[in-house]
Write a structure and sequence with these properties.
It contains eight helices and six strands; from the N terminus they run αβαβαβαβαβαβαα. β2, α3 and β3 form a beta-alpha-beta unit.
C-alpha cells in the first residue's frame, strides 16, 4: 500500500500467482495488474484466475508465455494482455528471437508486451515495430548502479 500511495503509475504484482487469495491480496494492496505465468498453470487455472482478476477486481491480467503452445493457451483463456518472456524459465537462456517469432501468431485483439532481455533503446524500437505495445524490464534496471539513467538510455534520452 505504501507503493500505491507513493506513485501514480500502474502497479503490477509480479509474483507466482496460483491461488485466488493472491488476487484478493493484490487488489487490497492497490495493484492494477497481476502476472499469470502460463507454464505454471493449467488452462482452467489461467481462465479462472484471469476472469477473477479482471471481472471481480478490475485488475488487468498479464498472461506470460514463452512458446507458441503457451500463446495458444493464453488466447483460449481470453487473454487481452499477453507478455512474451524472452527468458526460458527452465534454462534461463535469453533470446529476443522468442518475441520476434511469437508476435507473428499474436491474437489481433491482444496487447502484446515483450519481457526480459531488453537492454538497449534499439531493442525496444525493433520490438515496437514488430507490434509490441509495452515492455517489462527488470534485470537491466536492477543491475544498474543508476537505474534512472539506465531508464533514460532505454527511452533514447540518455
Amino acid at each position: 500500500m505504501r507503493v500505491r500511495a507513493a506513485v501514480d503509475l500502474p502497479i503490477l504484482r509480479k509474483d507466482f500467482i496460483f491461488d485466488e487469495f493472491q488476487i484478493v491480496e493484490a487488489a487490497a494492496a492497490g495493484a492494477d495488474a497481476i502476472l499469470l505465468i502460463a507454464s505454471m498453470l493449467n488452462d482452467t487455472e489461467i481462465a479462472r484466475l484471469r476472469s477473477l482478476a479482471e471481472d471481480k477486481f478490475g485488475l488487468d491480467a498479464l498472461i506470460e508465455v514463452h512458446s507458441f503452445a503457451e500463446l495458444e493457451r493464453a488466447e483460449r483463456a481470453g487473454a487481452g494482455l499477453i507478455g512474451v518472456n524472452n527468458r526460458d524459465l527452465h534454462s534461463f537462456d535469453v533470446s529476443l528471437d522468442v518475441s520476434r517469432d511469437l508476435i507473428k501468431h499474436a491474437p489481433s485483439n491482444a496487447i502484446m508486451v515483450a519481457e526480459s532481455g531488453l537492454r538497449t533503446h534499439e531493442d525496444l524500437i525493433e520490438l515496437q515495430r514488430h507490434g509490441y505495445s509495452g515492455f517489462l524490464i527488470g534485470e537491466s534496471l536492477m543491475r544498474s548502479s543508476d537505474p534512472a539513467a539506465e531508464l533514460r538510455k532505454l527511452n533514447g534520452k540518455g
